[in-house]
Amino acid sequence: EEASSLHDSTILRKEMSALIACDPIFEPSNFILQAQPLVVLRLNEPLWPTSNFRELLTLCAQLAVLLEKEAKAGKTQATEQNKARLFNQIVGFLKQRGAESHVEKFFTDTLLGSWFPSVFTEFIQDQRAPAENYVQWKDYLAFISVLNQLFVMSSQLREDMALVNHKYIAHQIALLYQCLNGVRNGVEQYKKRIESRFEEVKATTEASQCPQLSDN
Fold first, then answer.
1. Whole-angstrom Cα distance, residue 115 to residue 113?
2. What is the distance between the alpha carbons of residues 133 and 183, in angstroms, rounded to a whole number?
């Protein structure tokens, strides 16, 4: 056994010697010994090079908060006046920098477009199209939401018509009518059909505890 162990040890030493003599698979760089550091520290440098840029940053932050407030609570005379004031101040700054003709590039180069996307959108919208002709994306989302409510309500009403008890059908039809009012255009024929039969349906559903409407 001792001879076998000695033989195995000899073979292991030869294999290790051969492994050490081979070139390494990967040589990691020792950044501590490098003349130039890999990371440049800028702890003491300001985020913006001049006070004017910091003033612009403040204006954009104020306008972003105002736009968010307007989106949640709606437009008021006070918010419109404050928005116009901040907007004009930012435009004045851009004119001083000669950037009023290429606002999009300025906001991209200074990263303001990434930090304040709502402000960036407000300026780009103002450049590309008149406000009365510009379809706001929030208005679009609101319209899609109304269409979704209309779809859900009509689907639910269709399923409930297969039930035995139609007690709450009149209430569901009233909700469907409200959804149609939200759509506004192209639904007049459906609204008139509901208006012509609603009182009849309501009277039938209130006549008993388990009313049953006819297919007509």
1. 6
2. 19
Q: Enumerate residues 6+ apart whose C-beta is below 8 A from 205.
A: 166, 167, 168, 169, 170, 211, 213
Rounded to the nearest 10 degrees, the angle between the axes of helix 137-160 and helix 169-183 is 160
Report the alpha-carbon distance of residue 110 to residue 123 in Å, rounded.
15
Per residue in 7-53, pLDDT (tens digit) is 667 777 777 777 677 777 766 666 555 555 556 666 676 666 566 77
What gap in Å lies between CA 68 and CA 204, rounded to an integer?
A: 48
Q: How far is CA 111 from CA 32, 63, 116, in A?
A: 33, 16, 9
Neighbours of 54 (CB within 10 A): 13
Strand residues in 59-152 grouped as ranges (E): none
pLDDT digit string, tens, across residues 184-197: 778 888 888 888 88
| AA letter at 75 | K
Structure pTM? 0.39
Per-residue burial over 152-161, b if 16 or more Cβ lie within 10 Å, else e, is ebeeeeeeee
DSSP at 34: -
- DSSP assignment letter at 23: P
Longest CA–CA separation in the chain, Å: 108
CA-CA distance, 169 to 161, in Å (whole number)? 8
Extract the tokens encoding 176. 């469907």
